[in-house]
UniProtKB/TrEMBL annotation:
Keywords: Cytoplasm, DNA-binding, Sigma factor, Stress response, Transcription, Transcription regulation. This is RNA polymerase sigma factor RpoH. Interacts with the RNA polymerase core enzyme. NCBIfam families: PRK06596.1 (NF005143), rpoH_proteo (TIGR02392), sigma70-ECF (TIGR02937). Residues 253-272 bind DNA. Belongs to the sigma-70 factor family. RpoH subfamily. GO terms for biological process: DNA-templated transcription initiation; response to heat. InterPro entries: RNA_pol_sigma-70_dom (IPR014284), RNA_pol_sigma70 (IPR000943), RNA_pol_sigma70_r1_2 (IPR009042), RNA_pol_sigma70_r2 (IPR007627), RNA_pol_sigma70_r4 (IPR007630), RNA_pol_sigma_r2 (IPR013325), RNA_pol_sigma_r3/r4-like (IPR013324), RNA_pol_sigma_RpoH_proteobac (IPR012759). Residues 78-91, 252-278 form the RNA polymerase sigma-70 domain. A motif (Interaction with polymerase core subunit RpoC) lies at residues 78-81. GO terms for cellular component: cytoplasm. The gene is rpoH. Residues 54-123 are annotated as: Sigma-70 factor domain-2. It is found in: Cytoplasm. The lineage of its organism: Bacteria, Pseudomonadati, Pseudomonadota, Gammaproteobacteria, Oceanospirillales.
Length: 285
Protein backbone atom coordinates (compact mmCIF):
# COMPACT_ATOMS: atom_id res chain seq x y z
CA UNK A 1 0.00 0.00 0.00
CA UNK A 2 2.83 2.41 0.86
CA UNK A 3 4.48 1.93 -2.52
CA UNK A 4 1.21 2.54 -4.33
CA UNK A 5 0.66 5.80 -2.45
CA UNK A 6 4.22 6.84 -3.24
CA UNK A 7 3.65 6.20 -6.94
CA UNK A 8 0.41 8.21 -6.96
CA UNK A 9 2.21 11.05 -5.20
CA UNK A 10 4.95 11.14 -7.84
CA UNK A 11 2.46 10.91 -10.73
CA UNK A 12 0.47 13.93 -9.51
CA UNK A 13 2.35 17.26 -9.81
CA UNK A 14 -0.17 18.90 -7.49
CA UNK A 15 0.20 22.50 -6.43
CA UNK A 16 3.96 22.53 -5.76
CA UNK A 17 5.23 21.90 -9.27
CA UNK A 18 8.83 22.86 -8.48
CA UNK A 19 8.99 20.34 -5.66
CA UNK A 20 7.54 17.66 -7.93
CA UNK A 21 10.09 18.27 -10.69
CA UNK A 22 12.92 18.29 -8.16
CA UNK A 23 11.63 15.03 -6.72
CA UNK A 24 11.40 13.17 -10.04
CA UNK A 25 14.79 14.45 -11.16
CA UNK A 26 16.35 12.81 -8.09
CA UNK A 27 15.12 9.35 -9.17
CA UNK A 28 18.01 7.41 -10.68
CA UNK A 29 17.94 6.49 -14.36
CA UNK A 30 17.92 2.78 -15.14
CA UNK A 31 20.71 1.17 -17.09
CA UNK A 32 19.87 -0.87 -20.16
CA UNK A 33 20.38 -4.10 -18.21
CA UNK A 34 18.22 -2.97 -15.30
CA UNK A 35 15.47 -1.81 -17.62
CA UNK A 36 15.49 -5.10 -19.54
CA UNK A 37 15.30 -7.11 -16.32
CA UNK A 38 12.36 -5.07 -15.00
CA UNK A 39 10.59 -5.17 -18.36
CA UNK A 40 10.94 -8.96 -18.50
CA UNK A 41 9.52 -9.30 -14.99
CA UNK A 42 6.54 -7.14 -15.93
CA UNK A 43 5.91 -8.69 -19.34
CA UNK A 44 6.28 -12.34 -18.37
CA UNK A 45 5.38 -12.34 -14.66
CA UNK A 46 3.07 -9.29 -14.35
CA UNK A 47 5.34 -7.92 -11.62
CA UNK A 48 3.71 -4.67 -10.46
CA UNK A 49 6.79 -3.59 -8.51
CA UNK A 50 8.77 -3.78 -11.77
CA UNK A 51 6.10 -1.64 -13.45
CA UNK A 52 6.33 0.92 -10.65
CA UNK A 53 10.11 1.22 -11.02
CA UNK A 54 9.87 1.55 -14.81
CA UNK A 55 7.32 4.35 -14.50
CA UNK A 56 9.18 6.17 -11.73
CA UNK A 57 12.48 6.17 -13.58
CA UNK A 58 10.91 7.84 -16.63
CA UNK A 59 8.92 10.61 -14.92
CA UNK A 60 11.69 13.12 -15.60
CA UNK A 61 11.37 12.33 -19.31
CA UNK A 62 7.67 13.29 -19.20
CA UNK A 63 8.58 16.63 -17.62
CA UNK A 64 11.10 17.25 -20.40
CA UNK A 65 8.49 16.62 -23.12
CA UNK A 66 5.84 18.71 -21.34
CA UNK A 67 8.17 21.73 -21.32
CA UNK A 68 8.34 21.64 -25.11
CA UNK A 69 4.59 22.40 -25.19
CA UNK A 70 4.77 25.40 -22.88
CA UNK A 71 3.85 27.77 -25.72
CA UNK A 72 0.24 26.62 -25.86
CA UNK A 73 -0.84 28.61 -22.81
CA UNK A 74 -1.76 25.57 -20.73
CA UNK A 75 -0.59 24.70 -17.23
CA UNK A 76 2.65 22.72 -17.19
CA UNK A 77 1.36 20.58 -14.34
CA UNK A 78 -1.67 19.52 -16.39
CA UNK A 79 0.54 18.58 -19.34
CA UNK A 80 2.80 16.53 -17.07
CA UNK A 81 -0.15 14.71 -15.57
CA UNK A 82 -1.53 13.84 -19.01
CA UNK A 83 1.93 12.71 -20.10
CA UNK A 84 2.18 10.46 -17.06
CA UNK A 85 -1.00 8.73 -18.21
CA UNK A 86 0.64 8.09 -21.57
CA UNK A 87 3.78 6.79 -19.83
CA UNK A 88 1.77 4.26 -17.84
CA UNK A 89 0.01 3.11 -21.01
CA UNK A 90 3.40 2.66 -22.68
CA UNK A 91 4.82 0.66 -19.77
CA UNK A 92 1.77 -1.61 -19.84
CA UNK A 93 2.23 -2.30 -23.57
CA UNK A 94 6.03 -2.45 -23.68
CA UNK A 95 7.48 -5.66 -25.16
CA UNK A 96 11.16 -6.07 -24.17
CA UNK A 97 11.73 -8.59 -26.95
CA UNK A 98 11.49 -5.79 -29.53
CA UNK A 99 15.03 -4.71 -28.64
CA UNK A 100 14.35 -0.97 -28.07
CA UNK A 101 14.61 1.16 -24.96
CA UNK A 102 11.41 2.05 -23.14
CA UNK A 103 11.97 5.77 -23.64
CA UNK A 104 11.92 5.33 -27.43
CA UNK A 105 8.67 3.39 -27.23
CA UNK A 106 6.99 5.63 -24.66
CA UNK A 107 7.50 8.95 -26.46
CA UNK A 108 4.59 8.21 -28.80
CA UNK A 109 2.17 7.45 -25.96
CA UNK A 110 3.27 10.42 -23.89
CA UNK A 111 2.90 12.89 -26.77
CA UNK A 112 -0.42 11.37 -27.82
CA UNK A 113 -1.97 12.09 -24.41
CA UNK A 114 -0.54 15.62 -24.35
CA UNK A 115 -1.76 16.31 -27.89
CA UNK A 116 -5.27 15.17 -27.01
CA UNK A 117 -5.27 17.37 -23.91
CA UNK A 118 -4.03 20.40 -25.87
CA UNK A 119 -6.66 19.99 -28.58
CA UNK A 120 -9.42 19.64 -25.97
CA UNK A 121 -8.40 22.70 -23.98
CA UNK A 122 -6.59 25.12 -26.30
CA UNK A 123 -9.85 26.57 -27.59
CA UNK A 124 -13.48 26.25 -26.50
CA UNK A 125 -14.32 25.24 -30.07
CA UNK A 126 -12.16 22.44 -31.46
CA UNK A 127 -9.92 23.61 -34.29
CA UNK A 128 -8.63 20.19 -35.34
CA UNK A 129 -10.90 17.15 -35.49
CA UNK A 130 -9.43 14.88 -38.19
CA UNK A 131 -6.07 13.14 -38.02
CA UNK A 132 -4.72 15.31 -40.87
CA UNK A 133 -5.85 18.52 -39.15
CA UNK A 134 -4.19 17.48 -35.89
CA UNK A 135 -0.90 16.81 -37.64
CA UNK A 136 -1.09 20.16 -39.42
CA UNK A 137 -1.97 21.96 -36.19
CA UNK A 138 1.13 20.83 -34.31
CA UNK A 139 3.46 21.09 -37.30
CA UNK A 140 2.25 24.57 -38.17
CA UNK A 141 2.61 25.74 -34.58
CA UNK A 142 6.21 24.56 -34.53
CA UNK A 143 7.14 25.93 -37.98
CA UNK A 144 5.69 29.44 -37.69
CA UNK A 145 8.56 31.84 -37.07
CA UNK A 146 6.47 34.69 -35.70
CA UNK A 147 2.99 35.52 -34.48
CA UNK A 148 2.26 37.49 -37.65
CA UNK A 149 0.62 36.17 -40.80
CA UNK A 150 2.86 34.08 -43.02
CA UNK A 151 3.87 35.24 -46.45
CA UNK A 152 2.84 33.31 -49.55
CA UNK A 153 6.34 31.85 -49.81
CA UNK A 154 6.20 30.67 -46.20
CA UNK A 155 2.77 29.12 -46.75
CA UNK A 156 4.02 27.36 -49.86
CA UNK A 157 7.08 26.03 -48.05
CA UNK A 158 5.01 24.69 -45.14
CA UNK A 159 2.49 23.13 -47.54
CA UNK A 160 5.24 21.37 -49.50
CA UNK A 161 6.93 20.20 -46.32
CA UNK A 162 3.71 18.74 -44.88
CA UNK A 163 2.30 17.48 -48.19
CA UNK A 164 -0.93 19.51 -48.14
CA UNK A 165 -2.53 22.26 -50.21
CA UNK A 166 -1.61 25.88 -49.49
CA UNK A 167 -5.28 26.67 -48.86
CA UNK A 168 -5.34 24.10 -46.05
CA UNK A 169 -2.36 25.79 -44.40
CA UNK A 170 -4.06 29.19 -44.65
CA UNK A 171 -7.24 27.77 -43.15
CA UNK A 172 -5.39 26.31 -40.16
CA UNK A 173 -3.41 29.54 -39.74
CA UNK A 174 -6.69 31.42 -39.47
CA UNK A 175 -7.91 29.00 -36.82
CA UNK A 176 -4.69 29.40 -34.86
CA UNK A 177 -5.01 33.19 -34.98
CA UNK A 178 -8.62 33.21 -33.81
CA UNK A 179 -9.65 33.66 -30.20
CA UNK A 180 -12.62 32.49 -28.16
CA UNK A 181 -15.33 35.11 -27.72
CA UNK A 182 -17.77 35.10 -24.83
CA UNK A 183 -21.43 35.06 -25.84
CA UNK A 184 -22.15 37.86 -23.34
CA UNK A 185 -19.47 40.53 -22.93
CA UNK A 186 -18.58 41.36 -19.29
CA UNK A 187 -20.30 44.43 -17.93
CA UNK A 188 -17.01 46.28 -17.47
CA UNK A 189 -15.99 45.91 -21.11
CA UNK A 190 -15.84 49.04 -23.24
CA UNK A 191 -18.76 49.72 -25.59
CA UNK A 192 -16.97 48.69 -28.79
CA UNK A 193 -16.06 45.22 -27.55
CA UNK A 194 -19.42 44.70 -25.89
CA UNK A 195 -21.09 45.48 -29.21
CA UNK A 196 -19.03 42.73 -30.87
CA UNK A 197 -20.26 40.07 -28.46
CA UNK A 198 -22.57 37.58 -30.22
CA UNK A 199 -25.36 38.35 -27.75
CA UNK A 200 -25.48 41.86 -29.24
CA UNK A 201 -26.40 40.79 -32.76
CA UNK A 202 -27.78 37.23 -32.64
CA UNK A 203 -31.57 37.20 -32.60
CA UNK A 204 -33.39 34.78 -30.36
CA UNK A 205 -36.51 33.82 -32.28
CA UNK A 206 -38.05 32.16 -29.22
CA UNK A 207 -37.84 35.28 -27.04
CA UNK A 208 -40.92 37.02 -28.48
CA UNK A 209 -43.59 37.00 -25.71
CA UNK A 210 -46.40 37.33 -28.23
CA UNK A 211 -45.09 34.34 -30.20
CA UNK A 212 -44.66 32.29 -27.03
CA UNK A 213 -48.25 33.04 -25.98
CA UNK A 214 -49.53 32.18 -29.44
CA UNK A 215 -47.67 28.85 -29.44
CA UNK A 216 -48.95 28.03 -25.96
CA UNK A 217 -52.55 28.78 -26.96
CA UNK A 218 -52.20 26.73 -30.14
CA UNK A 219 -50.80 23.76 -28.23
CA UNK A 220 -53.57 23.91 -25.63
CA UNK A 221 -56.24 24.21 -28.32
CA UNK A 222 -54.78 21.26 -30.24
CA UNK A 223 -54.84 19.09 -27.14
CA UNK A 224 -58.47 20.00 -26.50
CA UNK A 225 -59.40 19.16 -30.10
CA UNK A 226 -57.61 15.82 -29.85
CA UNK A 227 -59.45 14.94 -26.63
CA UNK A 228 -62.77 15.87 -28.23
CA UNK A 229 -62.00 13.77 -31.31
CA UNK A 230 -61.00 10.77 -29.16
CA UNK A 231 -64.33 10.97 -27.27
CA UNK A 232 -66.20 10.42 -30.55
CA UNK A 233 -64.66 6.93 -30.88
CA UNK A 234 -66.01 3.78 -29.30
CA UNK A 235 -64.30 2.48 -26.17
CA UNK A 236 -62.34 -0.25 -27.95
CA UNK A 237 -60.97 2.12 -30.61
CA UNK A 238 -59.97 4.60 -27.94
CA UNK A 239 -58.10 1.91 -26.04
CA UNK A 240 -56.31 0.70 -29.18
CA UNK A 241 -55.05 4.22 -29.98
CA UNK A 242 -53.97 4.82 -26.40
CA UNK A 243 -52.14 1.49 -26.20
CA UNK A 244 -50.54 1.89 -29.63
CA UNK A 245 -49.60 5.59 -29.58
CA UNK A 246 -49.95 7.30 -26.21
CA UNK A 247 -48.42 4.81 -23.77
CA UNK A 248 -44.72 4.91 -22.92
CA UNK A 249 -44.49 1.15 -23.54
CA UNK A 250 -46.56 0.70 -26.69
CA UNK A 251 -48.56 -2.49 -27.17
CA UNK A 252 -48.12 -4.68 -30.25
CA UNK A 253 -50.88 -5.71 -32.61
CA UNK A 254 -50.67 -9.29 -31.34
CA UNK A 255 -50.99 -8.22 -27.70
CA UNK A 256 -54.14 -6.25 -28.47
CA UNK A 257 -55.44 -9.10 -30.63
CA UNK A 258 -55.12 -11.45 -27.65
CA UNK A 259 -56.84 -8.92 -25.40
CA UNK A 260 -59.90 -8.53 -27.65
CA UNK A 261 -59.81 -12.09 -29.04
CA UNK A 262 -59.59 -11.01 -32.68
CA UNK A 263 -56.87 -11.25 -35.29
CA UNK A 264 -53.91 -8.87 -35.47
CA UNK A 265 -55.11 -7.77 -38.91
CA UNK A 266 -58.48 -6.78 -37.37
CA UNK A 267 -56.68 -4.66 -34.75
CA UNK A 268 -54.72 -3.00 -37.55
CA UNK A 269 -57.95 -2.18 -39.39
CA UNK A 270 -59.57 -0.76 -36.24
CA UNK A 271 -56.48 1.36 -35.61
CA UNK A 272 -56.48 2.66 -39.19
CA UNK A 273 -60.17 3.54 -39.09
CA UNK A 274 -59.81 5.28 -35.71
CA UNK A 275 -56.90 7.35 -37.00
CA UNK A 276 -58.92 8.31 -40.06
CA UNK A 277 -61.80 9.49 -37.88
CA UNK A 278 -59.45 11.46 -35.62
CA UNK A 279 -57.90 13.17 -38.63
CA UNK A 280 -61.29 14.08 -40.06
CA UNK A 281 -62.44 15.55 -36.75
CA UNK A 282 -59.28 17.67 -36.42
CA UNK A 283 -59.60 18.95 -39.99
CA UNK A 284 -63.17 20.01 -39.33
CA UNK A 285 -62.14 21.77 -36.13
Amino acid sequence: MGKSLQLVEHLSPGRNLDAYMQSVSSISVLSAEEERELADRLYYQNDLEAARRLVMSHLRFVVHIAKTYSGYGLQLGDLIQEGNVGLMKAVKRFDPSMGVRLVSFAVHWIKAEMHEFILRNWRIVKIATTKAQRKLFFNLRSQKKSLGWMTNDEVKAVAEDLGVEAAVVRQMEGRLASADTAFDAPVDEDEDRAYLAPASYLEDQSADPALQLENADWEQQSQQQLVAAMQQLDERSQDILVQRWLQEEKATLHELAAKYQVSAERIRQLEKNAMKKIKGSLLQA
